[in-house]
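Let's inspect one such protein example.
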Amino acid sequence: IFGTDGIRCLVNQEPLTPETTLKISKAVGYLLKSRKKKNSRVIICKDTRLSGYLYEPLITAGFISMGMEVILVGPLPTPAVPHLMRSLRADIGVMITASHNTYEYNGLKFFDSKGLKIVKTLEKKIESIVSNKSKYKKIINLTYESGKAIRLDDSQGRYTEYLKSTLTKKTKFNKIKVVLDCANGATYELAPKLFWEIGCEVVTINNFPNGKNINHNCGAVDIKDLSKKVLIEKADIGFAFDGDGDRLIAIDEKGKEVDGDSLIALFANNLLKLKKLNKKTVVTTVMSNLGFEKYLQKKLGIKLIRKKVGDINVISEMQKNGYSLGGEQSGHIILGQYMSTGDGILAALKVVEIMFHQ
């Protein structure tokens, strides 16, 4: 059922048929429900793809049937989930997304009470319940008590204010012109508004989702339009997010791509100067460039640890040993001081901050 980053497949196919999705939701509720609280709380978030309308009520029903309280926060980037979980003291977080895939796909990412993506051992337990009829029968809630669902209206504002709080106080970025490619995904409303609020001159493309145009020839998977737009607008920098907003690819003022490795190198250099790079170590995957590794080691004296592909492998290594910076060449950037997962908007804000203070 689970792949390298949660569950992902074509809509209405196994393991995300409506019937199996409901089973998965109930199994997750059973295993992650707090035994100490009467009403465990779940945050459910989604991106902009059409099938979100299918999976959001199914997953909600599963948790409600287990007697849990569900808070629906609407379309927001994946990294908003762990933040809102902390803010609302939730036990479980769910992101309905297929990340950088097109709208024909969808998927589920689950977060535990610490706001971390669930571990492989827990994934195996969920799979064993879903695929075994007798085990599944044992977890069904036989009381007449069900939970309830509410929709939270100010979730975007809560997340936006947190992101702004990571910046140097009162800096106005009014000299910087940015172009944002929102991939017709979860960042479509929040990112342009946020960059405008901090004072940037903002040009936005691909910010009109219709349920079917998410990641379609745009965003972090296709930067051609963004590159052209940066040159036409004579912008200082361009940022491309993926559909669920946890990845970032940048475009410099000459229209050239700045990938995840280059961005991690930029942050490593900056954190080193600020004496905030824990243990002078960066965590990436086996996909990272050799030139990037040599730059870190020979120019900056920074140790590089490589893990298997998948941001969860980078994150678990960072958590285990207290490292403050990690990521993937594909654009997942984990700034451990602020966030326990990759966050495209946060990374873009911090790049702009570094540019402003150069």
Observations:
- The two ends are 47 Å apart (CA to CA).
- The first strand starts at residue 7 and ends at 10.
- The chain has a mean pLDDT of 95.
